[in-house]
# Entry
Amino acid sequence: MEKTLHFTVDGKEYNLTFTRATVIATERMGFNVGEVVTKPITSLTYLWRGAFLANHDTLTIAEVDELLTKVQTKGLLDALIDLYKAPIESLFDNEGNSKNLVAWTVT
Amino acid sequence: MDGDITAIPSSNGEVGEGEGSDTQTLVSTADIFDKAFPEYLVMGMTYDEFYNRDHTLVKAYRYAYKRKREECNRDLWLQGAYVYEAIVRIAPALNPFAKHPKIEPYLDKPYPLYDKEETSEDVKSKAVADKGLAYMQAQMMNINKKFGLTG
# Structure
């Protein structure tokens, strides 16, 4: 099951996600994963707009940007990056040969 | 299917270290998708499924394709086994020095696909067991009723 980000504004439910087509579209809009650290707000805006393309492509950019002002932004960039990278990661699935890979930890 | 899909393109200037250059040219996400897509086409995935639908579908396709290949491999093995069986049975006739070769007929029925196929004797013994179980349950109910027990 694909990852989705759910929220409700004014009684309307939104389910944000990325497909491979919308990942490409988001990058063509200007999103560059290499600029996430240096330009987090710009990246957030691009990812936010791109995440609407899969299920809510009838909304205008103005409407989408308006919704961004109505949701909590804490942790939002990380969540959107998770959504964005999921279609890419699913291609690099290494379940089959995981026993040959080196384990790593985060401290 | 394993290596090709997940491999990052390299040594053709698309990604990795270019010759005589210190900079790395990163391949775009679209290129990664475009490169992987033909592999999934082979597995039966459509353009719409790959680009527009649930991105986790690729895992199911990979698994299904692997299963299909395994089944195909098993079928080919089975075919070889039947051919071998047939040759062994007809082998005496191929001996030019045999005066009265004894040829065995081909198999009456195919090899069983599962470890144990249910025979008519199995069915009979199961019916007997079921009958015994029903009798025991009826006896228990009678005893419980007699002593005023429930359940």
